[in-house]
């Protein structure tokens, strides 16, 4: 589909390939390793304030040029006389069962400040998920088949009533932004203030290790009640669907408080082997594993002199993991239904590529420390201009 011309009755714009596939993959990595429960059943989200709260502020950097590009396109196409403000930025994934009926995006009294919407598709219909087609009630285009990199922008009012079909398989991922003409709803001002508080203490070196939020933010149950009996821990489940488990060596048992378990050091386990390397907590392990999934074979070039062992699990360790599994995952099939990709894409390999994962630990560290450095360098300019923008710094 190509760009759609401006129609006064239905002010909207479709932009094919607005984001590069590399940008889509990077945001997918961030979402899958940082997301929390969303605002509706089977929906998960990663907001910028959640990133800040979990010591992962540096992941805001990849969003910056994309937000700028979208805002520019929007202001130009809709001929905005005054600058717009970004009211909300978030990565949103929908799992099997999620859908939304006809609505406009400003359809609540507390959403009236939303004047424009932008939805960026980060993965592709038929490849990564099925169901999930987008429809406008009137006008053209009548439907959109999500494809990684494509973007749709529209006014958030009754001229653009839309819906999304139920997801029937896989996970549908988008970057959603809302824009406002009203500066008092500027997300940047709030984010800069949070960033300033969070980055004030601590040296650059220890600011990039993730710190989990309170445990109920990672607890998913279908009816959204934080019911520890009928749900699962998102971090635990995300690792599990990729074929990994974690072992917590410090005195941990099924009776321990879940919040406490989340901040304990962990070891990665695959099958009956564990990697002889400690991660600071489950979020750290999850980020590295997803980094490994993102970079894949590109990591192989860096692994010549790595010497980290795989160790056979003892029966006692296996038992302990089973105990934690029964508490944190509960129902394996439920977690798989929510997080597994399309059946056709599933990779059956169960070997532990320890060399690749160890290479990912180092490459992840290099990547996040580079982002962290960028954040520290740019923040003073963001504060000065009360705006998050791509500061062009001399080398
Ligand atoms: O993800 C989409 O295609 C649109 C989502 C939507 O309509 C909304 O979140 O309000
Ligand atoms: Fe919507």
Automatic annotation (TrEMBL):
Keywords: Dioxygenase, Iron, Metal-binding, Oxidoreductase, Repeat. The keyword Transmembrane helix does not apply. Its EC number is 1.14.11.7. It is an enzyme of class 1 (oxidoreductase). GO terms for biological process: collagen metabolic process. Residues 85-181 form the Fe2OG dioxygenase domain. The keyword Oxidoreductase applies. InterPro entries: Oxoglu/Fe-dep_dioxygenase_dom, P3H, Pro_4_hyd_alph, Pro_4_hyd_alph_FE2OG_OXY. Pfam families: 2OG-FeII_Oxy_3. It comes from the Eukaryota. GO terms for molecular function: iron ion binding; L-ascorbic acid binding; procollagen-proline 3-dioxygenase activity. Its cofactor is Fe cation; L-ascorbate. This is procollagen-proline 3-dioxygenase. It comes from Canavalia gladiata (Sword bean).
């Amino acid at each position: 589909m190509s760009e759609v011309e401006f129609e006064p009755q239905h002010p909207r714009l479709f932009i094919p390939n607005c984001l590069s596939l590399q940008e889509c993959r990077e945001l997918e990595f961030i979402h899958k390793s940082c997301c929390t429960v969303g605002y509706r059943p089977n929906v998960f989200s990663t907001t910028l304030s959640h990133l800040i709260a979990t010591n992962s502020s540096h992941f805001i950097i990849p969003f910056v040029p994309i937000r700028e590009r979208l805002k520019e396109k929007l202001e130009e196409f809709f001929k905005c006389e005054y600058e717009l403000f970004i009211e909300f930025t978030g990565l949103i994934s929908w799992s099997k069962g999620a859908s939304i009926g006809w609505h406009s995006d400003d359809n609540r009294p507390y959403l009236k400040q939303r004047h424009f919407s932008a939805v960026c598709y980060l993965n592709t219909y038929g490849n990564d998920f099925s169901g999930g087609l987008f429809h406008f009630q009137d006008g053209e285009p009548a439907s959109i088949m999500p494809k990684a990199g494509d973007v749709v922008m529209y006014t958030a009012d009754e001229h653009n009533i839309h819906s999304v079909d139920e997801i029937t398989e896989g996970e549908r991922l988008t970057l959603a932004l809302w824009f406002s003409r009203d500066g008092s709803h500027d997300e940047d001002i709030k984010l800069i203030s949070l960033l300033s508080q969070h980055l004030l203490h601590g040296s650059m070196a220890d600011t990039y290790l993730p710190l989990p939020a309170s445990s109920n933010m990672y607890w998913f149950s279908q009816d959204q009640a934080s019911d520890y009996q009928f749900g699962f821990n998102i971090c635990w489940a995300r690792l599990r669907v990729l074929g990994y488990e974690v072992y917590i060596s410090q005195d941990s048992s099924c009776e321990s408080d879940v919040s406490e378990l989340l901040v304990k050091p962990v070891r990665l386990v695959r099958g009956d082997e564990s990697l002889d390397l400690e991660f600071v907590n489950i979020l750290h392990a999850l980020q590295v594993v997803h980094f490994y999934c993102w970079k894949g074979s590109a990591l192989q070039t860096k692994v010549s002199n790595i010497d980290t062992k795989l160790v056979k699990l003892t029966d006692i360790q296996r038992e302990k993991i089973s105990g934690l599994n029964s508490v944190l995952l509960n129902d394996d099939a439920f977690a798989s239904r929510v997080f597994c990709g399309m059946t056709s894409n599933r990779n059956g390999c169960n070997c532990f590529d320890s060399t690749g994962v160890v290479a990912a630990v180092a490459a992840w560290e290099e990547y996040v420390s580079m982002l962290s450095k960028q954040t520290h360098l740019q923040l003073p300019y963001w504060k000065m201009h009360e705006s998050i923008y791509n500061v062009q710094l001399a080398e």
